[in-house]
Design a protein that fits this description.
With 504 residues, this protein is an alpha/beta fold. It contains 16 helices and 23 strands. The longest helix has 18 residues.
Amino acid sequence: MVRPLKENPMNEIQHLIDGVASPSTSGNDGPIFDPATGQQTGTVALASVAEVDAAVASARSAFDGWSEVSLARRTKLMYEFRNLLVANADGVAARLSAEHGKVLDDARGEVARGIENVEFACGIADALKGLHSEGASTGVDVYTVRRPLGVVAGITPFNFPAMVPMWMFPNAIACGNTFVLKPSERDPSAPLFIAELFQEAGFPPGVLNVVNGDKVAVDRLVEHPDVKAVSFVGSTPIARYVYASATANGKRAQAMGGAKNHMIVLPDADLDMAADAAVSAAYGSAGERCMAISVVVAVGDAGDRLVEAIRVRMEKLVIGPGTDPASEMGPLITREARDRVAGYIQAGADAGCRVVVDGRDQAFDGDGFFLGVSLLDHVTTDMSVYTDEIFGPVLSVVRADSYAEGAQMIRDNPFGNGAAIFTRDGGAARQFQQDADAGMVGINVPIPVPVGYHSFGGWNDSAFGDHTIYGPEGLRFYTRPKVITSRWPDPSTSGVDLGFPRND
């Protein structure tokens, strides 16, 4: 069933607890803006501790029954959810574009990647097959099964309000857990709509709950004794905080943080292809991607030609409202975000880099949170535009004399989300995949986000926890192993033996 968009000029976004819309009793709410116009379009309820507790209680009550539901039934329901998502993909995309600002085509791509993760969860029956050793010892069988944890929580960011929740809850629920989702309060409509589709698919009440909120909700989730695990995606400072707080409260935690993704371009690379990739990966979604390329390392004599090729392509970019089919890039999420990014451009200029294209020079009609694309050349590793995650449409070019210098630059950076190389040299590419100090590596691929049946996760200050997110690693995070040793002896052979058990 395709759900039509509701015409409501001032939405009031509430919670979804125990399968029904739950009006807030906290008395606190936050504004929701259309970034393309700068106008407030709604409000979102900010949950109190009591409301978070109600969501967790609902999930806890649902767990005992849901964890014993057959794999066949879980699979059927997940397929129903997948089909509803496909039918309503444009509706999800429209909602996230309206509140995040990204262009509709980009939004549709986000939804498609989220659906990919749901499709992986549809294969849960195969993915959860255990291990069995028959005759491990005489008459003894040993087998390993994986059991769900209980109530688990997900805290998700504003930049991918549809995709990132689907990195988490489909796998968690398919494994037999129940879930409490705390999406970003900046763009909550898309994840709430997805949760409503989940209910429509036939999942029991309480299996998936949504509480909107701010730090109050986050803190309660990471300290609640009935929450067994927490998944988080956001900035590195908050990721570190969530991981430390959750683990201090005895929970499993996976916390994906920020990034400073480098793309090395060797002189032998096809520079037109490299320039296309750099522009696409730096400015897509206004640079508000944790896997965006924000640093190009131009090696040797590639620098001048590459910078010019990038500049030429930047001139052709169309920036405008996400709903305009002609737009290739939309606004930033908030006015504060736009002003912060503009401040980095000025900081780079003050530090001595060459501002090849200054996004502040582009004028836009209206009060939207727009900023033009920027290109900074001759950036050095001590400048704030290099050291900080800007999270906006700013690309820095650093010059390097050799591949070794570029690879060392990546190793020296505290982040380790993604890294890419553009080259026609297979030997250099193979060396890079070993040298790159990052969890995800692209070879002639600028944004190496893994497909849904692999797993996403960075290294160093880009990720905290032993498990990366979604795919096979996600299943391991949301389950714990149980090993059963089984023996059915003839009672006549039984006797007391205080010796250490032997396998023979």
